[in-house]
Amino acid sequence: MSRIIASAGIRGAHSIAKQAKEIYAKAVSEKGADCAVEFPNTGYFIPIIYSMTGIAVEKLSDFEAVFKEIDSLLPALVDDDVWLPYLGPVLDAGMATLFAEEIIEACKYLIGPNPVDDLWLGAADDIILRERGIQFVDGTAPGFAAIVGAAPDVETAVSIARKLQEKSLYVFMAANDNGTSFAEQLIEGGVQLGWDTRLVPFGRGISSAIYALGFASRAALSFGGVQPGDFRRNLLYNKNRVFAFVMALGEVTDEWYATAAGAINFGFPTIADSDIPEILPTGVCTYEHVISNIPHDEIVDKCIEVRGLKVVVSEVPIPIAYSPAFEGERIRKDDMYVEFGGKKTPAFEWFTMKSSDEVKDGLIEVIGPEIDSVKEGDALPLAIVIEASGRKMQADFEPVLERQVHTLINEGQGIWHMGQRDIIWLRISKDSQKAGFKIEHFGSILHAMYHEQYSSILDKVQIKIYTEEAKVKELLAQAKQSYASRDSRLADMSDESVDTFYSCSLCQSFAPDHICIITPERSGLCGAYSWLDGKAAYEITPTGANQPIAKGATLDAVTGKWEKVDEFISSTTQGAVESMSAYSMIVDPMTSCGCFECISAVLPSTNGIMIVDREYSEMTPSGMKFSTLAGTVGGGNQMPGFIGHSKQYIGSKKFISAEGGIKRIVWMPAALKGELKETLVKRAEEAGLNGEEFFSQIADENVGADEEQILEFISGNGHPAMEMDEMF
Ligand code: SF4
Ligand code: ZN
Measured in angstroms, how far is the CA atom of residue 33 from the centroid of ligand 1? Predict the structure, then answer.
């Protein structure tokens, strides 16, 4: 290996460790050694330190133990002509650097400069981790590029970012090159930054690179079931499952070297545009460790090749770029050329099954005005009618396929879509219009993507797009009938009415011991997979993550156990879980990967339960915040008294029905309660209660977030839980 890298990396590590000691001393003198220290809303403490060493830093003085680790990892400084035969000391220096950089960033949260401002986002909280983590699970995001420094000019920066977006990668930005940062270059180039566009500006200094690596370390803990302190498994997990690399743009300083060495520990190689010494022997990373001197127009492809990423790019015949990374883009009114729906005009989308002779594959018709005949800023009525046939197509799949319209259309650059059915809202940006995008291209996208993703159930697809008000209204009446008949069919469906459930093992790539069992009355805990989705996914990919499970003999109708379901769980978790009940949170409750929309937890003294959703980050009556609860419930373990579940499940007749169901709910965050009001009232009526009264008996944070306060509130208001049997 190169001597210069060894000396530069080790020098950089010493320099960063020194800075960490200085800012730490300053923080202690300003705030006191007992001052609490944290990154906002995370259950993983200071995450790289926590995941690699197991040290749960809660107050400043806890860093003392971390400094000991740093000192023991830091190799002695070496001269440029000292030959190090293997990477070990440099890797240790890299890890020490990351610990020191985390200390620097954590202290900045206390004494400034604040890592978060108008541009920089600082640490990602656990909500973002889970939301974005799901994309790594389902493959919509293959990995991330950590860019340090800046491109030589704005144009090059924009071109690199766009190429990475087109490959669906996240772009994490840190550091600056002589005062210029990549993030600021993108802003200057008019590019939207933020988690939604996958272009994430972490911070201006090199130490903010730890936000990217901390994200990776937490992914191993939260999805991979890796224990804090088990650094070997954590690093292996990242090497094998998180596709990431560092792109170093500009002059590589000693401190950048040191940080890059930290990233090499994770198996993330560094690809640089400047002439720096290369580290080619493979071993820790999948391919090379450091390669240099790559021209800007080749650097994205080189990164992907070096890290061994398999990126599948869909070829959609439209004049704009197309990729999942564009899904989160917003189009403001001022940037919009034309819009549809959004209460301004009638608009809807409708997927309907036809017989083969009624569909001419590839037919795309626009009936009514095209974009050429509308003025900038206009609003048009819109009906997108997708007619499809296929030997394996079933009417049941219509809603599943229709829901894809949102994602598929949104992935066009400069196209924005919201809502579904007859509450949609679409915009085409001025830039896209200038690039030649037409209304007809909505059809091109849908035709290409339905064939690409659903070829096993769809043979022919045609799309008719109406932009004439009278015709749109006429068709809307038909579509509404179809929506209503679908809804009533779904409402009639119960766990008893089917003999097959579906599994979902999508999250096993991240949470190896977890499997979701999806029934008509209990959707997957992430909320993204209903029983119908499972059924459709199985037809689409028979060997995929959703497998049918014939229920077999009923073992226990109350807790919801079936012979074949238990056998399936036991075999797919390698015996880790032997039995699981669908309707109980006490007896063999279902496991969780970490993607749950909500967590329910027993509050023993109240004889009831609380439900908290992911959006609520304050303290709950269980004595834990969502992030801490998530750590308890996730990871594929059965935790009697706790379950992770979807929002849909709260409105199900089978919601913890073994324990008495909805009547047990004593506390929810006010926002969640408001969101589910209609459902809660209706379900309470069905359970023989006065719906409105029951709704008002459920406490929220305005009553308190302390079990005793909740008990006092519900004992005074006649809450039904008070009369029920004990839960355990
Ligand atoms: Fe993961 Fe379960 Fe959702 Fe499937 S249904 S993606 S396993 S949380
Ligand atoms: Zn999951």
Answer: 43
Q: Which tens digit of pLDDT belongs to each residue from 92-110?
A: 999 999 999 999 999 999 9
**pLDDT of 51-66, one tens digit each?**
999 999 999 999 999 9
Pocket test for ligand 1, best of 593, 648, 649 (most atoms within 8 A of CB): 593
Read off the pLDDT of residues 512-546 as tens digits, 9 standing for 90 and up. 778 999 999 999 998 878 898 899 889 888 888 89
For residue 282, pLDDT over 70 is answered with no
Which CATH architecture group holds 3-307?
Answer: 3-Layer(aba) Sandwich (3.40)
pLDDT of residue 83: 57
Of residues 46, 9, 2, 5, the one with CA closest to residue 259: 9
Where do the domains of the chain lie?
Answer: 3-307, 324-487, 496-723
| Nearest ligand for residue 515 CA | 1
Determine which residue's CA is closest to atom 8 belonging to ligand 1.
Answer: 526
Q: Is 133 in the pocket of ligand 1 (CB under 6 A)?
A: no
Q: What confidence tens digit (pLDDT) does each residue in 317-354 have?
A: 899 999 888 988 889 999 999 999 998 999 999 999 99
CATH class of 496-723: alpha beta
Distance (Å) from CA 406 to ligand 2 centroid = 22
Measured in Å, residue 546 CA sits from the centre of ligand 2 at 13
Rg (CA), the chain: 27
Place of tokens 């790594």: 136
Query: Ligand 1, closest atom to CA 514?
Result: 7
Output the residue whose Cα is nearest ligand 1's atom 1: 507
Cβ atoms of residues 711 and 606 within 8 Å: yes
> What's the full length of the chain, in residues?
728
What separation in Å is there between the alpha carbon of 529 and the centre of ligand 1? 7
CATH architecture of 324-487: 2-Layer Sandwich (3.30)
Cis peptide before 113 (omega within 30 of 0): yes
Q: Which DSSP string do the residues of 162-209 spell out, in sequence order?
A: HHHHHTT-EEEEE--BTTB-HHHHHHHTTPPPBGGGTEEEEESSGGGG
Assess whether the C-beta atom of 537 lies below 6 angstroms from ligand 1.
no
Q: Which pTM does this prediction carry?
A: 0.72
Q: Which-ligand-closest: CA of 504?
A: 1
CA of 593 to the centre of ligand 2 (A): 4
